[in-house]
Design goal:
CATH topology of the largest domain in chain A: Rossmann fold
Number of strands of chain B: 4
Low-confidence stretches of chain B: none
Largest sheet of chain A: 7 strands, mixed
Shape of chain B: globular
Oligomer: heterodimer
Mean pLDDT of chain B: 87
Largest sheet of chain B: 2 strands, antiparallel
Mean pLDDT of chain A: 87
Distance between the termini of chain A: 69 Å
Strand order of the largest sheet of chain A: 7-6-8-9-10-14-15
Number of helices of chain A: 12
Helix content of chain B: over 70%
CATH architecture of the largest domain in chain A: 3-Layer(aba) Sandwich
Number of domains of chain B: 1
Radius of gyration of chain B: 19 Å
CATH superfamily of the largest domain in chain A: Response regulator
């Protein structure tokens, strides 16, 4: 009988030890980023934000267990993205995966939906990313939200007649739709829309058409090297109207382009000079680690990782396991989160409302803020 | 773990199907094509479009995909195969470039750069392909059927004619063989079979966009054939397995920083290619002396 009691006690202790062990386990999240190939630069940027957030969460000690990020290389290709995503879900058993790039995001979203794994984009801004199911979240405002922030400012500056040059893909078409809807509401008008193929690099003809439109402002809806060429060639071909664009204009190549000087663009409001503890810690630690100021991409992936930390802490407090379903439920319940840059509220479709800012290209690396647009 | 392995196996089968069908023209007819990704893409887009607008039945989708891909292959082969060797490579490169542009721009069918998703699952009477295991069985069956079809063809008079043309086009002509016709038919056959891989891929991924059908994919499939061994039955299979597994296996190397895995993969991949070409130019399953046998 005594032997039985001893065995029972040992068993109970072992069970307790196991439970403590379970709490002390790693809290893993996955990341499917381009870590090699021509887009590896983005993988480096994204991962530097995610790593810093994980370090901060671990240092704070509020999370039971150590947070770690498991990376899989997508090479920005859908097939490799799906292989990486499947490994994260079925081998590493992560309930939360960071991603970027529209093609990869869409491909991995189907795995996320099927396996009830949360997939979070914090890089792409195409509005079609809002339609990938309830397990796919966007931790940054999509471009339609940026257009809504910009239009009232344009009208207020008496730039009411807007001509649009847009890349002919879902991203560009979404901006057409948004400007067609928002400009008349604000008292402006879309006087012309000129599409360019995604691979085009010659815009002399487009510039001639823009001159004929006699607009007050020209909105450039493109990305990558193309937006750089559009801005340059418009000016080279005598277009003197105000140039306008969105957050893709925040890259250093454009900020230092003489022809782009004076361009207005919208961007997520992340005031790196802010003194709130979250932003200050993020900026200071990033500078200490990398010797330079963080970009918006870094901040966005920091926020997306911090979001997982916040949700995990909330679920641990309730004694619930970290599953995709519970994370989704917790996100819906908490809904507003402290991010670097300010409070962010999730909309029912998994995208966020966040404060925006209108900036102008002034030749400095980060542009000059001309207006803050509150989230509404 | 099982799901991950199944996922890898399905994608290995899809790529092996592509490699086997490319090897049919490359290894046995000496026709080097850089447009195989386009036939793969045609299969995928036909599957997505038909499933989205008409039916998910494979009894309709597979023949439709094979027919359209065969017609595009015919359009490439008829003019291009009247010339020899490198001219076909140039023509196929042209088709690859045009194909990618069409995939990107024909938005009503391909969804443009954004691609197509949200189409219903593939089905056969009494069967629906939704689980990963069902896809694995389907992709293995397709691969085996294609291997059998190619093997049968290679052991027929048509196969012997192909190999005769590969070894000496002039000699085959002198023997009265209709070289242009035989080469054209082989390209049409290969294109049609490559489309089946596209059908499996589209339904498995539940998403199709142009990024999967670029020149990089055509080059990767060609690398699978060359590394595995051109003109051999098992070579393309070995090549596909190897090139699909290298990236996945490197992510398990202990002590390797996770952010460096991608770069290490590229180095291993490049070094393996160079070493193979030095010590076994005929590919892993091919002869030591290289070249098409």
């Amino acid at each position: 009988m005594v032997a039985f009691k001893v065995k029972a006690m040992v068993g109970a202790l072992a069970l307790c030890a196991l439970q403590v062990g379970a709490f002390a386990q790693d809290v893993k999240l996955g990341a499917v980023f381009p870590m090699s190939g021509p887009n590896a630069t983005y993988g480096d940027l994204f991962s530097s934000g995610a790593n810093l957030a994980a370090e901060h969460i671990n240092a704070d000690g509020k999370l039971k267990g150590k947070m770690s990020v498991i990376y899989e290389d997508s090479q920005a290709l859908p097939q490799r993205g799906v292989i990486g995503m499947n490994k994260l879900v079925s081998v590493d058993k992560v309930p939360y995966v960071l991603t970027g790039f529209t093609g990869v995001s869409k491909a991995v979203s189907t795995v996320g939906q099927r396996t009830k794994t949360v997939v979070v984009n914090a890089g792409g801004v195409g509005p079609d990313l809002a339609e990938l199911g309830e397990y796919f979240w966007n931790a940054i405002p999509l471009v339609n939200y940026e257009v809504r922030a910009m239009v009232p400012y344009l009208v207020q500056q008496n730039l009411k007649k807007v001509a649009l040059i847009y890349v002919d893909d879902p991203f560009g078409q979404a901006i057409v739709k948004e400007l067609e809807g928002e400009l008349p509401k604000a008292g402006g008008s879309l006087v012309g829309k000129l599409s360019v193929p995604p691979t085009s690099q010659q815009f002399g003809g487009i510039a001639a058409k823009v001159r004929e439109l006699k607009a007050d402002a020209v909105y450039i809806a493109s990305y990558g090297a193309q937006q750089f060429q559009i801005a340059k060639q418009l000016r080279d071909n005598g277009v003197k109207e105000q140039l306008v664009s969105y957050s893709a204009f925040s890259v250093p190549e454009i900020q230092t382009l003489p022809e782009a000087k004076g361009t207005l663009y919208s961007e997520l409001l992340i005031d790196l000079a802010a003194t709130d503890p979250l932003t200050k810690r993020f900026v200071d630690d990033f500078k200490k680690k990398h010797g330079k100021a963080p970009t918006n991409y870094v901040a966005s992936y920091y926020n997306a990782t911090k979001l997982y930390g916040d949700l995990a802490i909330a679920l641990q407090k309730e004694g619930k396991p970290l599953t995709g379903t519970n994370l989704l439920e917790a996100r819906k319940k908490i809904n507003t989160f402290d991010f670097v840059g300010g409070k962010v509220t999730f909309l029912p479709n998994g995208t966020v409302m966040a404060p925006m800012q209108i900036k102008t290209v002034d030749g400095s690396p980060s542009g000059k803020q001309v207006q803050v647009v509150k989230a509404n | 773990m099982t799901s991950y392995i199944i996922n890898l196996l399905v994608l290995i089968c899809v790529n092996a199907t592509l490699a086997v069908t490319l090897n049919f023209i490359m290894g046995y007819a000496g026709i080097f094509s850089l447009a195989h990704a386009i036939f793969f893409g045609i299969g995928s887009y036909v599957a997505a479009y038909v499933a989205l607008h008409f039916t998910g039945s494979l009894l309709v989708i597979l023949p439709a995909a094979m027919l359209i891909s065969a017609l595009v292959g015919l359009a490439l082969a008829l003019p291009a195969l009247r010339v020899r060797g490198e001219y076909f490579v140039a023509a196929s490169l042209g088709l690859q470039v045009i194909g990618v542009t069409v995939f990107s721009e024909w938005k009503s069918v391909t969804g443009g750069i954004g691609g197509v998703m949200g189409f219903p699952p593939a089905s056969l009477p009494g069967l629906s392909f939704e689980s990963p295991t069902a896809f694995l069985i389907w992709s293995v069956v397709m691969l085996v059927l294609i291997l059998l079809a190619i093997n049968t063809l290679l052991h027929s008079s048509f196969g012997r004619n192909l190999q005769a043309i590969r070894d000496s086009e002039s000699a085959a002509l002198a023997y009265g063989k209709n070289v242009a016709m035989i080469k054209t038919l082989s390209v049409v056959f290969s294109s049609a079979l490559a489309a089946t891989a596209g059908v499996v891929y589209a339904f498995y991924m539940s998403f199709v966009n142009v990024e999967s059908f670029t020149l990089d994919t055509s080059v990767l499939v060609m690398a699978m054939v060359i590394i595995g061994g051109t003109g051999t039955i098992w070579g393309p299979l070995v090549g596909a397995v190897l090139l699909m597994l290298i990236p996945s296996l490197t992510s398990y190397i202990p002590g390797l920083p996770q952010t460096e895995v991608g770069s290490i993969q590229q180095i291993i991949y490049g070094a393996a290619m160079v070493l193979l070409m030095i010590f076994r130019p005929g590919g892993i399953m091919g002869g030591k002396h290289g070249g098409v046998k």
